[in-house]
Amino acid sequence: MRATVIHAPHDIRVEEVPDAAVQRPEDAVVRVLRACICGSDLWAYRGEAKRQPGQRIGHEFLGIVEETGSAVSGLRAGDLVVAPFMWSDGTCDYCVEGLHTSCVHGGFWGSVGFDGGQGEAVRVPYADGTLVKLPAAAASDEHLLTGLLALSDVMGTGHHAALGAGVRKGSTVAVVGDGAVGLCGVLAAKRLGAERIIALGRHTARTDIAKLFGATDVVAERGEAAEAAVRELTGGQGAHAVIEAVGTEQSMRTAVNITRDGGAIGYVGVPHGSGTGLDLGVMFDRNITLRGGVAPVRAYIPELLADVLNGTIDPAPVFDRTVALDEVPDGYRAMDDRSALKVMIKA
C-alpha cells in the first residue's frame, strides 16, 4: 500500500510500504477515506521534532473497517469509523477515568513500527477501545464527512481547551491562536455558552472563520499591543477563560496577561521552544488557574459526534484545501507557508 513517510526535514514522500494487516486479536484494519495534516505534524516537517528516516506520519483519519481480529467484538467489516489521534484499550484505569491519552497500552499513530494516518490503510491496535462508529450514510455526504474528520483531533482538542479554561454560560473567552485548533476552540466556547469570544489573529481568512464559529471580537495585534487591546475590550479586567492554542513562550505569556484575576487558561498548544514564559508568582498573586495538555479526544467524541450529526456544530470550514494522497508533500508545503489552514487528504 501507499503511505506518507518522512525522511528528513522538508522531505515528505508517499511511498510503497507493507500492507496494513491484523497482527494481534485486538486489531482492526481500516481503509482510509479521509485523513489530514495537523499543525503539530509541521514540527517534524521543520526538523523541530525528531523522526527516524522513513518513519510514518499523520494521526487524523476516518475510514471503513476492512478486517478485525478475533477479539474484536464491537466492530465488523464495512463499519464507517473515526479514529482519535491516539489508540487506547478503553479498559485501563486511565481510560475509565476519561484520560485515554495516558492509557497504559496506548500510543500515537506514526510511532516507530506503527502505521500513520496519512496512507491507504491503518492497522488499529485495541480497535474496540479506539474506534468510534459513524452512521454509514455519512460516507456519501461530503460535507458531513469533512466535519466528522475534525473529531479525530482538532474539534476535541479545542473542546479540551475550552473545558480547561472553565468556559461556561455567559463567560468572556479569549482565544490565542488562529490555527485549526484555536478556531475549534472558538466553536467549542460558543457551544458551551460563552457570551463574548475574542479571537486573536491577523489573517483575515482565518478570523472570518472565527466569526462564523462565534467570535464576537477580533484582535489583530500581537504581544503587548494584543494584551492592551483585550483589556480595553474587557473593561481593563481581561477574559474569564483563555484558550492557548499555539505553544510558544510568547503565546503563553500573552495568555497569562489577558486572563482576568481568578480566571483560567486552557492550554493545548504543543509546547516548543526552551521554556513556557510562565511566571508562577504572577499566576499565584492573581489566582490564575492553568489546565490542559494532550486532549483525551476519545472521551469527547461521543458527545461532539451527536452535535455534529444534529447540526449544532460544524467544524468542516477549518479544512480549506484538499489533496490526493500523492499530493501530500504539496499539502505540507502549503501549511508550512501558511497558504493553507488545514489540508484534508482524500486517500
Describe this structure as you would to a colleague.
There is one protein chain. This protein is an alpha/beta fold and 347 residues long. It has twelve helices and 18 strands. Strands 3, 5, 6, 9, 10, 17 and 18 form a seven-stranded mixed β-sheet that branches. Strand 12, helix 7 and strand 13 (217-219) form a beta-alpha-beta unit. Helix 5 crosses helix 6 (180-191), helix 6 (180-191) runs parallel beside helix 7 (204-213) and helix 8 packs parallel to helix 9 (249-257). The chain starts with a strand and ends with a strand.
Defining key terms:
18 strands, 7-stranded mixed sheet, 347 residues, 6-stranded parallel sheet, single chain, globular, alpha/beta
Largest sheet: 7 strands, mixed
Name the helix and strand elements from N-terminus to C-terminus, one letter apiece: EEEHEEEEHEEHEHHEHEHEHEHEHEHEHE
| Mean pLDDT figure | 96
CA radius of gyration: 20 Å
The quaternary structure here is single chain
What share of residues are in beta strands? 15-25%
Can you tell me the overall shape?
globular
Percent of residues in helices comes to 25-40%
Low-confidence stretches: none
Structural class: alpha/beta
- The number of strands is 18
Tally of helical segments: 12
For the termini, the CA-CA separation is 11 Å
Topology:
Elements: E1 2-8, E2 11-16, E3 28-36, H1 41-45, E4 55-56, E5 61-68, E6 80-83, E7 86-87, H2 93-96, E8 107-108, E9 121-124, H3 127-130, E10 132-133, H4 142-149, H5 154-164, E11 172-176, H6 180-191, E12 196-200, H7 204-213, E13 217-219, H8 223-233, E14 239-244, H9 249-257, E15 259-267, H10 280-285, E16 289-292, H11 297-309, E17 321-324, H12 328-336, E18 343-346
Parallel strand pairs: 11-12, 11-14, 12-13, 14-15, 15-16, 17-18
Antiparallel strand pairs: 1-2, 1-4, 3-5, 3-9, 3-18, 5-6, 6-10, 7-8
Helix pairs in contact: 5-6, 5-11, 6-7, 8-9
